[in-house]
Amino acid sequence: MYAEVLIEYNSKTIDKSFTYLVPEDLKKILQVGMKVLVPFGNRLINGFVTNIVNDFNDDYEVKEINCLVNKEFVLNKELFKVAEYLKEETLCTKIQALQTMLPSALKVKEQKSNYEKLVTYIVACANEEEINTYISNNEKRPKQIEILKKILEDKKVIKKEIMGSSLNTLLEKGLLKEVKEQEYRLSSGEKQENDLKLTKEQQRVIDEIDFTTNNTYLIHGVTGSGKTEVYIKLIKKVIKKGKTAILLVPEITLTAQIVERFYKRFGNDVAIFHSALSEGEKYDEYLKILRKEVHIVVGTRSAIFTPLENLGIIILDEEHTESYKQDTTPRYHARDIAKFRAEYNNIPLILGSATPTLETMARALKGVYKYLELPNRVGTSRLPDIKIIDMAEEVKQRNFIFSSVLKDKIKDRLEKQEQTILLLNRRGFSTIITCSNCGYTYKCPYCDITMTYHKSSNNLRCHYCGYTVLKSDKCPECHDATLNYYGLGTEKLELELKNMFKEARIVRMDTDTTSKKGSHSKIINDFKDHKYDILLGTQMISKGLDFPLVTLVGVINADATLNIPDFRSGEKTFALLSQTAGRAGRKDLQGEVILQTFNKDNYILNCVKENDYKRFYQYEMNNRHKLNYPPYYYLCSIKVSSKDYDLASSETNKVKKYLESHLSANTIILGPTTASVFKINNVYNFQIIIKYKKDDKLYKSLKELDNIFALNNKVNISIDTSPMRI
Ligand code: ADP
Ligand code: ZN
Hints:
The protein is an alpha/beta fold. It folds into 5 domains: about 1-105, 3-Layer(aba) Sandwich (GIY-YIG endonuclease); about 120-180; about 200-375, Rossmann fold; about 385-425 and about 490-620, Rossmann fold (3-Layer(aba) Sandwich); about 635-720, CATH 3.30.70.600. The chain is about 30% helix and about 25% strand. It has 21 helices and 30 strands. Strands 11-12-10-13-14-9-15 form a 7-stranded parallel β-sheet, sandwiched between helices. Strands 16-26-25-17-24-23 form a 6-stranded parallel β-sheet, with helices on both faces. Strand 25, helix 17 (about 570-580) and strand 26 form a beta-alpha-beta unit. The model has no long low-confidence stretch (mean pLDDT about 90). The site of zinc ion has 7 residues, from loops.
């Protein structure tokens, strides 16, 4: 008996299985999809069993599998298919695909630690009679008696609770013994909440969904329209039939609240996955699925790869979210994987959003997806009133950060004991530091980007590569002491706010204040419990959060995303501002939103103001049509990078020539241009964009290109077949 084993070997050229002999002790248990340790060269490495065969005739001597790595883990057939799909779609290797799909603890690599958390318990070893006899013979040893009585009563006691010399004596005498049991690190607590009675609109959406076949549905529901409640109901229905469900959520901030909601409604039937979990926690959650102890997975992007069997529904909440796209190899979009798995299982896929991507909306309007709408908020709650404030006018009154309207409204909310959320999509203190004598501007020496001043750590940081220098008082060029700090970051906003509202309780949420484990949920829970009056932060705070006392949302700089040179900047701005606005007035209190801008007549901002997605959609579709962007064309981006500028440049030109001679005539090839950040970490980046409608030669050519560069260690090529931005 032989097994074909796919191993990890860090090269694109090796992406195949090797054959090994199955040792006697594994013959009965070895299955396709298991992880094994095999000899390769002169070391032992991990691999996946991809096939088991009885015969193997080749000349060379076959080595034997060393051992099984993890008895409980088997990659099922569906996930093998997913890996195949991932490989084809993103041009990665099969082993890269498999690695991406697994939590760190199960990836193929040198297994360092045992991930199972074991708890030591004490149980009886002697029988009850013997123990009772011991108790009556040892009346002068109260400690020991206490322990024995506890064991007789509880049967099993955690060792930590009764540790000490008395316990040791009892263990030595053989009356008691230790047992180790695995314990999950995360648990839900008790189920608490009963179901809400759905509104007519919610019920209508649910009635439209056919669980028996594969369709994609778009639930287009305004913020606070009760989408999450619909998801819960759909999942309940699926579980009732004994099936399972995956719910994908955008980011960790959002997961905190959603997970809490799911724990309350489903108890320990839920496994959760997101990047803030420890390796051990992820491993535990994965085991719960392998052991079929949960029916529901709630998680971020990579949760789409969890091995739930008998899937009944997949839901992507906030489908427009950029974090569903992975930025490193394999560059997949969770929506595509979700579609693949929904088709494979012949089940519905639900895409939910208040601000769907144009691609999704276009498909819904064409009838490719079924369009379901929740146009109103639940109950008496109305969408917030949105005002646009012209900052050009405010600056004349010397209001640089807060317009007088926003200032007054914050004050008003503080008096009324209501809460405020402020969005500023830039962290740090000042974002541009220049010398007024010689004009020098601090830039990262490795990246083509200005450095940001962080006051709390008193240093300048590059937000791309992390390069950090201490703040100095003098210009490094001319040694003049006239450094100026411009540009506003969240850190400075917090300080300004504290100076303006001395009594207010203010909390900031951005990457800098949430690096510690658990800090996200702490900020969110404290804000929910009204320990703070104002929450300020970056886009982290824009999505999904549901706080009934928030009646004011202020966007300090609504233009930030508008000016990014990207075809999606309009869509991103609309989504970010609508989502942020959606945090206001979600329950009984009416909400208000202030958008501060230097572009008061901007079309997109005015669509946000009117809560008019459809008008935004028409306008933006028109732009995309004119410029041949998605959804009218598909995109593919190719990045060529090297530490050697000339080499990067000349190789990019070669790539372009190659594409021109290999792709269909009506495919558009743009570039080469320098990438949006030209230099990162001393590496120069060039870019070529391909726009196409249908090109049968594209994937084949891309694969060839990729192979050509696989052996080049001076120039790197990265191909993104579904870029979210360019
Ligand atoms: P969305 O996900 O669309 O933003 P949510 O599901 O979070 O909306 O609902 C918004 C608020 O309305 C939440 O506080 C939720 O508990 C409440 N809610 C949703 N559906 C109902 C319902 N049928 N009855 C009462 N309250 C509801
Ligand atoms: Zn840098």
